[in-house]
Amino acid sequence: MTLAPTRIEATPERAPDMRLYESLVARVSRPARYSGGELHSVTKAWDAHEVRVALAYPDLYDLGMANLGLMILYDIVNRRDDALAERVFSPWTDLEALLREHGEPLRSLETRHAVRDFDVLGVTLQYEACYTNVLNLLDLGGIAVRTADRAPEDTIVIAGGSGALSPEPLAPFIDAFVLGEGEEVMREVVDVVRAWKRDREAGGLPRIELHRRLAGVPGVYVPSVYAVDYHEDGRVREVRPLDGAAPGRVTRRVVESLEPPLTKPIVPFMEVVHDRATIEIQRGCTQGCRFCQAGMIYRPTRERSVDEVVRAAGELLDNTGYDELSLMSLSTTDHREIVPMVNALMDAYGDRGLKISIPSTRVDSFSVEVADAVARGKKHTLTLAPEAGSQRLRNTINKLVSEENILTAAENAFSNGWTSVKMYFMVGQPTETDFDVEEIVRVASAVKQIGRQHIGGRARVRVSTSNFIPKAHTPYQWVGQADPATLRRRHQILREGCRRAGVQFTWEEPEKSLLEAVLSRGDRRVAEVIESAWRGGAKFDSWSEHHDWSVWQASFEEHGVDPAFYAYRTRDLWETLPWAHIHGGTEPSYLRGEWMKTLNEEITLDCKRDPCNVCGMQTLDGDCRHKIAELVQMKVDGDSTQKERLMQERERLMMLPVISAP
Ligand code: SF4
Asked: 244 pLDDT band (50/70/90 cuts)?
């Protein structure tokens, strides 16, 4: 095994005033979170690079280091001769207290420069509960929290990730949001920043000029060049551009084919979440689960070939020393060559102890086959995600899984050496009744029974539930969330039922889900609430031990903002939504159609294997244009074989009612 050294340029200028910071870091728990210098981290000469980017993950290092997107952007920027990228993470409370006590700014891991010294701070918005951490990070880094308070030469704050597609709650704090996949647009943004720096230094340009330039980059949304008008009853009337450089609708960026996988990721000194090598084997998911934002905004699917994955895996294992490899994707077992891929990987690297992990599993016997191939004897817990207990509800949410699929998967698992099955369900979904929740108990009991038949008392079954959160850019973006009383009653049904069946049960508190619903579908007025909550002490809201609903409640009251307006209200299908000016890829007309299909209990097949559903992506992506051309041809030819095949597929899935084929 050959391990490449950490890349440190000959004269990396470390920040001159960092000694106090170093002494503070030495006093906190897990100082390795802040030390830098890991294998494959890149420390470039500060003064020799014109554009300096700090890439931030607004949560602990332990979580942020598992974010592949951040690692890809770090690599892209550091490959340039004119730019450098460093990392920064939210400090844990012990370091924050020391920084505030000593008036020290938060610094990067590589050269220890204060965050405010960078030209760009790029923040990943992975989930809404990190929004207070974003403000905390700006404040600790020495950057004005509000865009309007930043001078022309101040750090440019840019945010990306899924949260950027519903950006208004963070609009006053972020200079620009990057929508969609970052590989190409990141390079374009760095070019704009470099030109801006030169012109600003030569001509004293105001910051709004930077905003205009950024707004001209496709896929970049700059809130300061848009205004929001409201109806008297509080609904959004219009989000309108204020400047000729700002498009009426900003469209998410999509890379047509995936760039080569990252094979020299940073290897942490300490144990982190997902402590293993990772290869993205496929991007996007078109299964079309109607509650799932990722499945709607990361389209279409793009696969890597078996050869590319096997070659890259060899380099990764050589470069990192890991013996565990994660095949990452939104739905890994959906890759058309997943079994040959797993077998080829085990053939190539099995003799050096390779372990493969697959993060997401479909509910069918094929998935158990893949899980078997991956486990190679070391079987413990098989994870399945039926999402709903009754067939009716699974049809409405377009989870194309029959009860037979679930029970067969359990049968295969327990008869092949697995001792534990974990099942994910969502509570509070649109059209759900108490009966649908009782069905979860019935299915879990049946799975437990199968386990007992095969391995007796050793069989473990766990039901893990999340609460449904209506998300932007999904067919459920108009739907009101179930209120806490309803969620509590359904949790109670599950608690009692699972106890009777000897099944473990875990759930989420309704108030946390309420906050997430407000932040995920909020408008600009929610920004005031976020800022007050942060000033009141809210941070690490995704951590149960830190989340304090009373702080948020006080903040909602202070600003006269009713959380129910955002979370529980069902919107009219033609209401202007706070993200109406953001084109996530799927068109609202398609999403409305999917909502109507929910009400009619109709399904939509996966366009990866079946004809294009014309979701809106056909205007953005080459593969989709090809698929839609096939669809048109099929219609022209009146392709009856294809029609018949579709009908059979629907019957196989035991879906009702059967809908008319194209
Ligand atoms: S445009 Fe068609 S092929 Fe492309 S993601 Fe949408 S449904 Fe699938």
From this structure: very high
Of 491-495, 564-568, 580-584, 640-644, the one with minimum mean pLDDT is 640-644
**Whose CA is closest to 441, among 490, 508, 368?**
490
Instruction: Calculate mean pLDDT across residues 440-453.
Output: 97
Reduced DSSP (H G I as helix, E B as strand, rest coil) percent helix, strand, coil of the chain, to 5: 45, 15, 40
Tell which residue, 339, 363, 338, 353, has the closest CA to residue 424.
363
Look up the pTM and report it. Answer: 0.92
Average pLDDT, the chain: 90
215 and 256 Cβ atoms separated by less than 8 Å:
no
- Rounded CA-CA distance 484/481 in Å is 9
**Residue 661 pLDDT exceeds 50:** no
Please give the CATH number for the structural domain made up of 363-522+585-601. 3.30.750.200
pLDDT at 151 over 80: yes
Split at pLDDT 50, 70, 90, the class of 89 is very high
Helix ranges, 521-639 (H):
526-535, 549-558, 563-567, 588-599, 622-637
Question: Could you give the dihedral angle defined by the CA atoms of residues 503, 506, 510 and 515, in that order, rounded to the nearest 10 degrees?
Answer: -150
Q: Ligand 1 centroid vs 618 CA: distance in angstroms?
A: 6
DSSP code string of 54-65: EEEESS-HHHHT
Residues with beta carbon inside 6 Å of ligand 1?
286, 299-300, 607, 612-615, 617-618, 624, 627-628
297 C-alpha to center of ligand 1: Å?
11
Quote the CATH superfamily of domain 19-219: Cobalamin-binding domain (3.40.50.280)
Give 276-360's CATH code, choosing from 3.40.50.620, 3.30.750.210, 1.10.357.10, 3.30.230.10. Answer: 3.30.750.210
Ligand 1 atom 4: residue of nearest CA: 624
User: Which amino acid is present at 644?
Assistant: E
**What's the DSSP call for residue 571?**
P
For the cut 50, the answer to whether the pLDDT of residue 657 exceeds it is: no
The residue whose CA has the least distance to atom 6 of ligand 1 is: 615
Cβ contacts of 587 within 8 Å, gap of 6 or more? 615, 616
